[in-house]
Amino acid sequence: EDKEEFCDILSFPSNPEDLFTLQYPIGHGAFGSVYKAVHNSTNKLYAIKIIDYSKGNNKENNNMINYNYQSVQQETSLMRLVNQSNYRVKYYGSYFSRKSNTLWLILEYCSSGSANDLMYSMNRTFSEVELATIMEMVLQGLALMHKKNLIHRDIKGANILLSEDG
Length: 166
What we know:
The chain has four helices and five strands, in the order αβββαββαα. The chain is α+β, with helices and mostly antiparallel strands and 166 residues long. The protein has a five-stranded antiparallel beta sheet. The chain starts with 15 loop residues before the first helix and ends in a 19-residue tail after the last helix. 33% of the residues lie in helices and 23% in strands. Strand 4 and strand 5 (102-108) form a beta hairpin.
């Protein structure tokens, strides 16, 4: 099991651009873009969610940046709480890049993509057995969150990610 941890959101020991090489975008969400990346010293693959905080200096943008920062802080705190689950994308840490004014969240790379991606690549919907298998794992992850009085609020095929071994 991968036990590697990176720095905390409030640590600034190095620029993430020096530690990781971004390969290509693999997703886009409300708070930023996600890239497949290689950790330069270990050659291990990670998914890196990059959130841009350099969107201008007017009051509306600053309010949105503060909202985004608070949301990301909450998200990373919640990720740490459920990080021990085998049914949750692993969170390894985060870096703030002073060079680009971006926050880099270091996550487990799920090489098989999402449940949506898999269904589209097979050019069919899931069978009942396949769906039951996926749902069993999703429910295992949700059970841990519910034990900690957390809810997900965005369960959908695009957010069900599959590792290489399923």
